[in-house]
Amino acid sequence: MYEKYYFRKHLVVLVVAIALEMVLATTLTMIHAPPPPVVVKDDFGREVTISKPPERIISIAPSITEILFALGLGDKVVGVTMFCNYPPEVLKRVSEGKITIIGGYTTPSLEKIVELNPDLVIGHNLLSPDFISKLEEANIPIIIVETAKSLEGIYEDIELIGKACWADEAAKELIERIREKISLFQDYIKDVKKVDVVHICWVEPIYIAGSGTYIHDIIERAGGRNAFADKTGWAVVSKEELVEKDPPYIIVPYKHGQTLVYEGVKKMKDEGLIHGEILSVDPDIISRPGPRVTILYETLVKLLHPEMWSKVVVVEELTAPESVGIGEAITIFVKVKNPGELDGEKVVEIMVNGIRFSKRVVLKAGESRIVDFLVPASSTGTYTISAGTKSVKCKVTQSIITLISGLTTKIETIETSLHDVRGGIEDIKSRVVDSSKIVEECRDSISSLYTISMISLALSIISIILMIIVLITIRGEYRSKGKET
User: Does the predicted model carry a pTM greater than 0.90?
Assistant: First the structure.
């Protein structure tokens, strides 16, 4: 019995051990098993299988090179065309021997590409079918990216390249960044009046961007109206057709040393054939449907609607004191950022109780700066201050200084009134004194009149007495004479 128990016990342990070993082996197999290959359908409808993340990539277009570097894959790029010059890291890696020039945009060297032993080649729709076939015969995976015909087409190219390079998440993030930057400006110009525009990309013959091109789409999104929307693709137009359209804005590629198109258009304007304003744009930016489409879009907004472009700022912070006294100034600080990729003058606006205040400041691309405003507090109450999406409140009250100032003013008013009263009293006193003098003079005059009256009375009495004496004397004499007679 003991032997059976011993056997069973060890059998259970053995089974458990085998089970654990199988689970561990399965887990390790899952961990170390290579991920399944990626299968992409390129813009030619070809299904291309990419068995592992490519470590050696060749780009046969400047726009493709810019997308690869924007996806963070620059260290995996081993070959580019002679026209691939952005970002600056490309030329740096070329000078260091880490990237090889494989030829031109439409004339790449098959031999150089094969020598570089790439895991993936990314080409464009202008490559010859024979060239593509030879790369396939050499067992070199190649995907074809067709020149985008719209902004959405650019997103699709980024998504395709990201998937082929096993960088789906990086592609999604890049697309989202581009969408956000463009939508920021679109919100400001959605209600602007559109202006007629033509993009001339070559002269003799005159090539223009018609509908079905990404330039057409960008113009329309930037508040413009393509004057040659009735043409399809990159079309040739006659000089007479351009003269007939005579749009107010003419976009031309221009860069130092690359003046052919600009000079050809300017000559037509100098001759009076066309009259529109010539807007020059870096040819590398306007000709490459890639990540720098954000710069192209912002450039067109700035050129066509500068007054709206200047208002595109992000308010990062807004501060103001919680309270101030009436009659004082409210000091408001606004931290703003230029969210775009172009330098220039921006308008910073705030609203205080519905009243707009603004200042102009020059901001570099991505630069933040604090702008201050001084707004007088003319009445008591709660002031609402807003800028962008930020809002704060400031309470305006009667300050101690204001109260003291008001009290001082009242005291001064009372003192002035008292001074006037004192003046009135002094005047009355003066008048009373003058009246007393008159009374005294009257008294003196009355006294004099009384004396004179008494003298006159005395004289009258004396005169009467004298008259009586005279009459008595005359009567006595008369009687004496009568007796003698």
Answer: no
CA distance 292 to 182: 11
Q: Parallel, antiparallel, or unpaired: how do β-strands 195-202 and 249-253 relate?
A: parallel
How far is 433 from 442, CA to CA, in rounded Å?
A: 14
Domain spanning 191-305, CATH class = alpha beta
Q: Which parts of 366-399 fold into alpha helices (H)? A: none
Q: Fold for 38-184, please state it.
A: Rossmann fold (3.40.50)
pLDDT value at 292 more than 80: yes
Measure the CA–CA gap between 148 and 311, rounded to whole angstroms. 30
pLDDT band at 483 (very low <50, low <70, confident <90, very high): very low
Q: Which helix (H) or strand (E) holds 277?
A: strand 277-281
- In CATH terms, the fold of domain 314-400 is Immunoglobulin-like (2.60.40)
| 78: nearest Cα among 37, 108, 107, 119 | 119
Tokens of 370: 């604090």
Q: Which residue, 104, 107, 69, is CA-closest to 88?
A: 69
Q: Quickly list DSSP for 437-468.
A: HHHHHHHHHHHHHHHHHHHHHHHHHHHHHHHH
Q: Is there a contact between 99 and 77 (Cβ–Cβ < 8 Å)?
A: yes
Mean pLDDT of 248-276: 89
From the DSSP assignment, how many helices (H) and strands (E) are in the chain? 14, 21
Strand-pairing partners, residue 357, are 350
Instruction: Specify the amino acid at residue 79.
Output: G
Secondary structure (3-state) at 425: helix
- 207 three-class SS: strand
First-last CA distance in the chain = 228
Instruction: Say yes or no to pLDDT of 361 above 50.
Output: yes
CB 186 within 8 A of CB 235: no
Question: Hey, which residues does 234 pair with through a beta bridge?
Answer: 209
- Residue-wise pLDDT for 310-329, tens only, equals 999 999 999 999 999 998 99
Domain with CATH 3.40.50.1980 in the chain: 38-184, 191-305
Q: 337: how many CB neighbours lie within 10 A of its CB? A: 16
